[in-house]
Specification:
Elements lengths: L2 H14 L10 H17 L10 E8 L9 E3 L2 H11 L10 E2 L5 E3 L4 H8 L3 E8 L7 H5 L12 H10 L12 H9 L11 E3 L14 E3 L21 H13 L5 H25 L13 H14 L1 H4 L3 E8 L8 H25 L6 E6 L19 E6 L8 E2 L23 E2 H11 L4 H7 L16
Parallel strand pairs: 1-8, 1-9, 5-11, 5-12, 6-7, 6-8
Antiparallel strand pairs: 2-4, 3-4, 5-10, 9-10
Helix pairs in contact: 4-12, 10-12
Length: about 475
């Protein structure tokens, strides 16, 4: 980077820098959290010596993805059992995209993801779900194991996936994405600069103890505060801006007034700086599909990754999401359409990471609050438990299904309730910890972030290099 670019970046960081608590968090709430924040951050490892770039992208599939029609047994006898059990929801074997080894296959809507898998750029993390501790059919049946609250409930299981626990009051626990960034932010040039970006609004997953995340608009990135943009029309706008500036700059005796004014000024400067920076992002030549909201979110994430050096970031985290996975009816059609959107969006995003030269330093993973029942409910499925997830990127040990596969026998060893509600073999904490370890986090910090991790023998599911 030449000297003029260095000056440009320093100027940008100066404009972007904000103190802890700036944003939507109130002054009183910030004060109440400070002691907890400081003690938690003091206990974390020093990540300021990290000198490489890594970005983590969470793709949350809201509603409960039917992983058993995403990854299907392909070996003939196993496929015959699948076809018999899934009945009207079974996909024809000839429509499937077989994976290396011809034991498993992807849905007909996933040709690009099949190619990524077979070229070792994508892996499957199998049999993952919400667990507090290892659970078997026997311990589940005799109620001798601790279980997440309200299994099979959308809201509770979404929260468990995002935090590792369920709120016992109106205050949500911090998400593991946010807690990771609490600690990893010291790797970046300006620790007070947001490095966790959501393209799907607010989520529990992105909230740490330090409220430094930024919700971006998938179309524009970020917009200036519209009511006070310095535009020529309407004609009264300029006078309103001047009046508002006088109010902000005036002396205030009340602490709350001072904090409110400072918060607005800092937010406005930060937003304006980010608007300017996004306008200068590297041009992306990869084509993205029209009418695909997930693809639009991922493209904006790619733009933010392209300006990581100007932002002074060595560690970034992104949250994108797609709804519509709650397939109680019309599943064959609706699920196939959703998988096509997922296939197209992830494929385009991977091509972009190659174009930007960051394929090895960007890892994208899917999450969903639960899998679906293996038995059908007429033309749909019910809420269930274990599922499979996709992990994509150059640092992924691709072309493999990582973890022990489920016994898909109804009333079998892995069936919790005799309806194909299969018990996970691996917990969300283990899945998240594997990704966090790749980001450079120490084992001691992993235990701080993932509340159930110490209950499991392994912290690493092995799908990352």
């Amino acid at each position: 980077m030449n000297n003029s670019n260095n000056l440009h970046r320093r100027a940008f960081l100066k404009k972007l820098a904000v103190g802890v608590g700036v944003g939507s968090t109130s002054f009183l709430a910030t004060q109440g959290k400070l002691q907890l924040m400081q003690s938690a951050m003091a206990a974390s490892s020093d990540y300021s010596t990290l000198n490489d770039h890594k970005s983590l992208v969470c793709v949350f599939l809201f509603g409960g993805n039917d992983a058993f029609n995403m990854l299907i047994p392909y070996e003939q006898s196993a496929y015959n059992d699948y076809q018999k059990t899934r009945s009207g929801l079974a996909l024809s074997r000839g429509s499937l995209h077989p994976l290396k080894g011809n034991q498993q296959a992807f849905h007909a809507s996933m040709p690009d993801l099949q190619a990524l898998y077979n070229n070792d750029k994508l892996a499957v993390a199998a049999s993952v779900g919400a667990l507090i501790e290892p659970t078997t059919r026997t311990t589940y049946k005799n109620e001798s194991v601790r279980l997440p609250a309200d299994l099979f409930s959308h809201s509770h299981q979404q929260e468990f996936w995002e935090t590792g626990t369920t709120a016992k009051s109106s205050v949500h626990p911090p998400g593991w994405g946010g807690r990771m960034m609490d600690m990893l932010t010291t790797a970046n040039s300006n620790p007070t600069e947001p490095a966790l970006f959501s393209l799907a609004g607010n989520s529990v997953w992105q909230r740490g103890l330090n409220p430094l995340y930024f919700a971006l608009n998938p179309d524009t990135g970020v917009e200036e505060i519209s009511a006070f943009q310095n535009k020529t029309w309407p004609t009264w706008r300029a006078s309103r801006i001047k009046a508002w500036d006088r109010i902000l700059q005036s002396n205030k005796s009340a602490l709350l007034e001072q904090h409110m004014a400072k918060t607005y000024i800092n937010a406005d400067e930060r937003i304006s700086a980010l608007v300017e920076e996004i306008a200068n992002t590297q041009k992306i030549n990869t084509e993205y599909p029209d009418g695909n909201g997930l693809a639009k979110q991922l493209k904006m994430a790619a733009k933010m990754i392209s300006i990581r050096q100007n932002l002074g970031m060595k560690r970034q985290i992104f949250f994108v999401a797609m709804g519509g996975w709650d397939s109680h009816g019309d599943q064959l059609s609706a699920h196939g359409e959703n998988l096509k959107k997922l296939n197209d969006a992830l494929s385009a995003f991977h091509k972009t990471t190659v174009e930007l030269g960051v394929e090895d330093s960007v890892t994208t993973f899917t999450a969903s609050e639960f899998g679906r029942s293996y038995t059908s409910n007429d033309d749909g499925t019910d809420h269930a438990w274990a599922g499979h997830n996709l992990v994509m990127g150059g640092a992924v040990k691709g072309g493999k299904i990582h973890g022990e596969m489920l016994d898909l026998t109804i009333n079998g060893n892995d069936d919790a309730e005799d309806t194909g509600r299969f018990i996970p073999k691996y917990g969300v904490d283990q899945y998240g910890a594997t990704l966090a370890k790749w980001m450079g986090m120490t084992d001691s910090d992993l235990k701080e972030i993932f509340p159930n991790l110490s209950n499991f023998d392994s912290y690493d599911l092995g799908f990352m290099s």
